[in-house]
Amino acid sequence: MMIMNLGTYGFTMAAARIIGPAAYGAFFALMNVMMIVSVVSLGLQATAARRISADPDHVGQIEREILRVSYRAALLLAGLLLVASPLINIVLDLRSLPTAMLAAVAAVPLTMMGAQAGILQGERRWRELSILYICSGLPRFVVGVAFILWQPTEFMAFLGATVGFTAPYLYGLVALRGARESGASNTRHGFGAIIRESIVNSQALFAFFALTNTDMLVGRMVLDSHDSGLYAAGLIVARAVLFLPQFVVVVAFPSMSTADSRARALTLSLALVGGLGALCTAATALLPDLALVFAGGGEYAEIGDRLWVFAAVGTVVAMLQLLVYSVLARQGTLSVVLVWAALTALVVVGLSVSSVTGLLTVVLAVDLALFAVLLAISVVKLRSEPAPAAQ
């Protein structure tokens, strides 16, 4: 996952320098659209991983049905994006209908790859899952940079990103080749049941992504351009701390989906993510000048003394993400509603502030409150579960 993130980051930085501000703005806007589309892929991944982990005796049936759902979801998203491409072209000011239409093509492998990753994750096939993640980053960097060096346009940049979505899907076809014994079919894993769970998971993850990305939009509305730029620089640190322990979520989720191991998995995972975040926060507080290098450099020195707070926000958000996936693992519903409520509170209160410190305080307070409530609910739910039967 670190290699994947480095490849993705490297390509993004190369695109910013090679294709220029105007084309890069269009490319970045379209990539944000794909981030929204990716919640379907992540929902399918969570569904597959949870079901296979919780009921390994029906892995063949689950794999077959989740792939069927992914094919149909991919085609549906592609169709919607194709129909909406003229609107996307206008709203994002792409000035290139073919670029907008390319989003429909990219949605197909992106969506189906989520189901493949979920199958590998649920079966705990870490080697194959690692290769799939690497295929998401390195081809994007190598092919993408070659494309934009050839023709420095937003279309070629997004074509490189599309290759980045396609490569892991092609590897997934190889990794999952060969039929699996499905045994007796179970109605719990039928086509309709998997669709319903995938929709629930996707909207839960969408709520989490909205919560963790809306603060920048609020900042653009309540802060002037200078202060919103400072806030954006601070968010680089927050995102770095959020993405650092992503591997913990991937490895822990199958265990959190199994009744006899979810409490231990959640406890250990929270301790690991919290510990990594605390170290990052302490390092940022002790070495603010070094942290500032990664947050944009000397032009953003005004935010240097508050970067440790952004690191703390990243830590809380990383732990929140773990709790959200724990909710998906046990198929909770109330907790998802609370995420939407926190998003509403962030927007309402955030619109009343007028400074970087004020917005940062609101974000941290909302995230901490949601974390405390979700943690309390998780503790109660896990304690109320019956003890596993003795073997």
Structure description:
The chain folds into 2 domains: 2-189, no CATH class; 194-384, no CATH class. The model has no long low-confidence stretch (mean pLDDT 85). It has 391 residues and is mainly alpha-helical. Helix content is 82%, strand content 0%.
Quaternary class: single chain
Number of E-state strands: 0
Q: In angstroms, what separates the terminal alpha carbons?
A: 36 Å
The poorly predicted ranges are: none
Percent of residues in helices comes to over 70%
Please state the average pLDDT score: 85
Strand percent estimate: under 5%
Gross morphology:
globular
How are the SSEs ordered, and which strands pair?
Elements: H1 2-18, H2 21-54, H3 59-91, H4 97-122, H5 126-150, H6 154-175, H7 191-222, H8 225-243, H9 246-256, H10 262-286, H11 288-294, H12 307-329, H13 334-350, H14 356-384
Helix pairs in contact: 1-5, 2-3, 2-4, 2-6, 2-7, 2-9, 3-4, 4-6, 5-6, 7-8, 7-12, 7-13, 8-12, 9-10, 9-12, 10-11, 10-12, 12-14, 13-14
